[in-house]
Amino acid sequence: MKKMLSLLLASAMSLSLLAGCGGAPQTPPAQSTPPAGSPAQSTPAPETPKSIKVAALSSGYETTYPGMWKEVCEAFTAETGIAVDLTLEKNLEDVIGPSMQGGDYPDVVLLATGREKGLTEQFIKDKLIADITDVLSMNIPGESATVSSKLIPGFVGTNATNPYGDGKTYLAPMFYSPCGLFYNAGLFQEKGWEVPKTWDEMWELGDKAKAEGIDLFTYPTTGYFDAFFYALMYSVGGADFFNKATSYAEGVWDTPEGQQCFDIVAKLAEYTAKVTPAQANETDFSQNQQLILDNKALFMPNGTWIVGEMADAPRKDEATFAWGMTALPAAKAGGAGASYAFLEQIWVPSGAANVDAAKQFVAFMYSDKAADIFLKGGAVQPINGIVDKLEGDNVMFYSIYDSGASAVVGIFSSYASVAGLGTVREVFFDPVNGLVSGSTTKDQWVNDIKAASDQMRANLV
Fold this sequence. Notes:
This protein is 39% helix and 12% strand. The chain is built from 19 helices and ten strands. Strands 1, 2, 3, 4, 9 and 10 form a six-stranded mixed β-sheet that branches. It has a four-stranded mixed β-sheet with strand order 6-7-5-8.
C-alpha cells in the first residue's frame, strides 16, 4: 500500500482546473446598537434537526451484506441523535431526480461520477454541490480524530473531489476499489494459459481462445470503460500524458500516445463478444458479466464489488471457478501495467435543508464504526490501516499495486453544459458499442472525440 499511496500522489495530483467564478458576496445589513441598559443581543445557535434525508446507490456491496446502509445510519443516529430517512435504490437517479427538479433535495447523496445518467456531473456543472472543505477538519462524531487525519493521503485534492481547481473539496471520497480485468483463474489453470503482461500477448491469447470458441473480452456497460481508459492512458503515456489528456490539452489526441490508446480499444472491440452491446445497459449488464462465469469470455473490466454482485450467479464449473484480477497490460515489453482506483463520492446538495447535519453524517462515514460495517459488504473506505482488516478475495485485489501495477487516480476535468456537447461517457465510451457492432468506425470515434475535446477545453468550469 505504501507504493500505492506514493503512486496515487504522483498520478493525478497535478491536474489544474480553471476556478469557477462565483457571485460577489452580499454585504450584511448594518446592525443597530441596542439602547443603554438593554440586555446584550446574541445569535442563537442553530437547532439540530431531528432527521436528515440520505440517498445512496444500492450496489453490489449491499448485495453482499443486505442492510449495510441501514446499519450505518442507525449507528449515526445512536451517536448523534439525528434520525436518518434513507433512500436506497439501484436506479437512484430515477427515484430522486424528479423531486430534486422540484427543489426537494436529499441532505446527503452517495452517487459517483461516471454513471449513465450523469446526475452527479450535472450538479458539478451547475455548481449545485455544497463546499464541504470544513468536513476535513471536523472531529468524527464519537471519535477524537479529524476526518483528514484518518484519510489515506492522495484521496482528496484531485479533480475527483475538487472539481473546480480552487482548493476546495465538494465531493468526499467514499468506497475505493482497484479496477482491472477480472477473469476465471480456474479456467486459465485448466487451459495452462498465462495472464498477458503486454497487449501483444493479449492478442495472442485472444487468437488461442477464439480457436476454442471463447471470446477474449466483454464489458458490463460502456460506463466501465472510464476506469479502463484511465488506466490505459496512464500505462501508455505515464502521468504527464494522463494529466494532459484528462484536461483535453490541445493536440493531445494526435500524439503517438493518444493514437496508441485508440488503436488498442479499436482492436479490442474486434475481440469482444458480439452479444455484449445488446446487453450493455443498466438492466441487462449482469448477462455480460455472466459470460465470464460461463467461460464464454476471458476478461472484463470491473471493480472489487463484482464478487458480491455475482455471488449467487451460476458457474459453468462450480468446483474450479475462482476470481482472478489483473492490471491492464503494459503498453510495451518491460513496461508497467496500470490499475485505476475507482472512487465513489458522497456529497451534499447546496440546496439541502440541513447542510450542517449533513456534514456530520459525511464525517461519520470515516468512523471506525462505519468502516467496520461497510467492510461486511466488502466496501473499503480510504482510511489509514483499512487494508490490514481485509479478508478473502479483497486481500488479492487490493495487493495489485504491490505487484508492480501503477495506481491511477483522477477523472476527466469538468466542463460547463454546452448545447450539443455530450458527457464524457457519451463522447469517449458509449461509441465502443458501435465499434463492437461495426456501426461506428475508429475514425468516426476519434474525430468526434477531437471535436468534443476542443469544446470541453474551452468550457472548463
